[in-house]
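I am writing to request your help with a piece of structural work I have in hand. What I wish to show you is a protein chain and, alongside it, a tokenised description of its three-dimensional fold. Could you please explain, in whatever detail you think fit, how the structure tokens follow from the sequence? You will find the record immediately after this paragraph.
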Amino acid sequence: MRFILGLQLVVTLTLTLTACAGMGSTSKGNDDGSSPINASEEKDYKRAINKCYKTGGSRVVKVEGQLMCY
């Protein structure tokens, strides 16, 4: 019985860590969003994408000069 509980814990922890590992990537998940045109704008996009993920969004689009989270 303890073996099954231990195995279940290990599997759950492994799946959780695997899911969290992909969230650190800044460019993943913005495939439908806009692309930066230079290095300065790329920094702004990375910052906006991280902020967008934290608030529940999935992509960043530049609309009339403003970065918008959707």
Observations:
- Residues 19 and 54 are 15 Å apart (CA to CA).
- Residues 23-27 have pLDDT under 50 and may be disordered.
- DSSP finds two helices and two strands in the chain.
